[in-house]
Design goal:
- It is a single chain.
- By secondary structure, this protein is an alpha+beta fold.
- The chain has three helices and eight strands, in the order E-E-E-H-E-E-H-E-E-H-E.
- It has a domain at about 35-100 and about 120-170: Ribosomal protein L16/L10 (Aldehyde Oxidoreductase, domain 3), CATH 3.90.1170.10.
- About 25% of the residues are buried.
- The mean pLDDT is about 85.
Amino acid sequence: MAKLRKSVSYRRIERPYTRISKFLNQSFIRMKPHIKIVRFQMGETSRNFRYTLNLIPKVSLQIRQESIESARMTSLRHLEGTLGKSGYHFRIRCYPYHILRENPLASGAGADRMSTGMQKSFGKPIGVAAQIKKGKPVFQISVEKENILVAKEALHRALTKMPCSFWIEIEENK
C-alpha cells in the first residue's frame, strides 16, 4: 500500500470538483474514493444528555478522512473504556465530500515514455477530505455533568490526530 502524503499538502481549502474543459468528458471526476469513516453516531442516541462538548477549529481547513477516522477511534476507545456504551452520545458533525486529486509524475529510467508531465494534469482521485469552516464543530460529545472531564479528555486525545489547533466548547442543554 502506498504511503499517505503529509496533511500539509491538502490542508488549504479549494473549490470542490473543479475542472472546465472544452471536451465534456474531461470536465468531471469519473470515480469517488471510498469513505473510510465507519460510523458518524455512536453511543446512546435515544437519550438526552445534560451537557454537550464541541471540538471547534480555530481556522478554516480541509481534514482528510483518515485523520477524522483515527481521531474518532482514539476518543471512542477512551469513552467506552470509562463510561461504557450508554454513558455518552458521540457524533461526527462533518462529512468528507471533497475529492483529493494527484497528478502522478514518474521519475527515473524510462519516465519519458510513461509520464505526460503537465499535459492533462487534472489528476486522479486519491482520497476524500472534509472542508471545515472556522467555528463549526467537527466532533460533538453529549454527557452528564459528572462525566464532563472524561469527555474533555476524549476530545484532547482526538486533537492529537488532527492537523490544526482546536478549542473545546462546553454548553448546557436545556
